[in-house]
Design goal:
Elements (H helix, E strand, L loop, with lengths): L4 E3 L2 E3 L5 E6 L2 H4 L4 E6 L6 E6 L5 E3 L7 E6 L4 E6 L8 E7 L4 E2 L3 E5 L2
Parallel strand pairs: 2-11
Antiparallel strand pairs: 1-3, 3-8, 4-5, 4-9, 5-6, 7-8, 9-10, 9-11
Length: 113
Amino acid sequence: QVQLVESGGGLVQPGGSLRLSCVGPGSIFSRYTMAWYRQAPGNQRELVASVTVFGYTNYADSVKGRFTISRDNAKNTVYLQIDSLKPEDTAVYLCAAMDTGYWGRGTQVTVSS
């Protein structure tokens, strides 16, 4: 069964940084755009960032300049580097292969002092 597994979340103070990772099958990372979404309690899931197989990236306005998405297809991994964390970034962050229905279960990011 196809599995995407996220890691790297945690409790961080405002202004801190985290690096999230998502690993999955090589069949996924060799052909699909990968994306990070986030979902806070009571809110709909929102697209945070995406990166194509060729490395083209896209970001939500709220995270531009602070978040960086990247991928290493040889390692079957997609990353989300998060800097200058704000309390409003608190959410479950989920990895997905776009247009496939393949999702991870998510990793919790909590920003609080």
